[in-house]
Amino acid sequence: MQPITQPTLLIDEAKCRRNIDMMVNKAKKHGIRLRPHFKTHQSVAVGKWCQEAGIEAITVSSLKMATYFAKNGWQDITIAFPFYAQEMAGVNKLAEEIDLNLTIVSPESIKVLKEQLDYAVGAYIKIDVGTHRTGIRPEDGEQIEAMIGEILRNPMVIFKGFMAHAGHTYGARDEAEIQQIHQDTLKIMCKVRDTYQEKFDLHDDPLEVSIGDTPGFSVANDFEGAQELRPGNCVFYDVMQTQIGSCDADQIAVAMACPVVAKHADRYEVVIHGGAVHFSKDFITDGHGHKVFGQIVRLTPDGWGEPIPEMHLARLSQEHGVISTSPEAFDTLQTGDVIGVLPIHSCLTANLMRGYRTFDDQSLDHLEGQIL
């Protein structure tokens, strides 16, 4: 590998491909369509690894991202972000070329589609299953019924069913809590689906339940009632996912390579080039009450080792990162070394870094690093 001269996001292709295979095999085992969320990697190159594993349908988080992947051969895309009026021209352009599904959270967006849609699209109504970010509450039956009625009256919109993201699994701190949220989500979504499938007599074209959160997908083994799974962060995983219990550290497929630039023996701190503009400011709190902005690993010629328990990334400013070490570990790092840092939230870290480097010195794309 060429020398590291600045913060560089390394990707372990073998780990990433294993994570992709895990997703594919789990969905196959349960007989459910896999539509992984590409917002984590946002990479055509990583997308090709997904295609090679048999993935044919994807989820994205923006019209821009959908357009990027459509231009690179993906023909079945769901935008899992609420459709809004300002996107209409772009939606029409994309819907002419691919099978496009939209996420609906308001009656106003349905009206815009009725007035301005030129090409057929699929539509999922987003249900809030407890995350309280967006979506219709399952108990708001009058609103759900009215929205379905408006969708069904528009021949250009194909009502696919209901979508949920149980994002509150990220607040869980053990597998049992994740499992409970997952089961509650399935119960809510299947009840909503069954209620309105019966009410609108849609048995000839059954409605779908589409769910997607990485912790739930990773630990659950019961997906009965769902037709589609949309995990995202499984492709890379990260330190937050290890703390939640979604994965082991050896499944994390990205690490930031950072030059060591200074040492301070009076406080056993080591400074690296790698700050908030590289990692984001997401953190976890460890068992000692310390904020952890990343876990420290030793880089090897073809990857990295296990997290070093005597060190953690303790503080970030714009370009600086400060590693706190034990007295014994302090002397194992020297100015001029390059150390690895496992990110807390790989989606944000990848978005900030706008590209990846493999261990055979290939540069891999990221949407945010492209001029479109």
Largest sheet: 8 strands, parallel
Structural class: alpha/beta
Mean of residue pLDDT values:
97
Number of helices: 12
Classify the beta-strand content into a percent band: 15-25%
CATH architecture name of the largest domain: Alpha-Beta Barrel
The outline comes out as elongated
Given as residue ranges, the uncertain stretches (5+ residues, pLDDT < 50) are: none
Query: Class of the largest domain, according to the CATH hierarchy?
Result: Alpha Beta
- The count of strands amounts to 21
Count of spatially separate domains = 2
Give the strand order of the largest sheet, numbering strands 1, 2, ... along the chain: 2-9-8-7-6-5-4-3
Radius of gyration: 22 Å
| Helical content (DSSP H or I, runs of 4+) | 25-40%
Superfamily (CATH H level) name of the largest domain: Alanine racemase
CATH fold annotation of the largest domain? TIM Barrel
Ends: how far apart?
29 Å
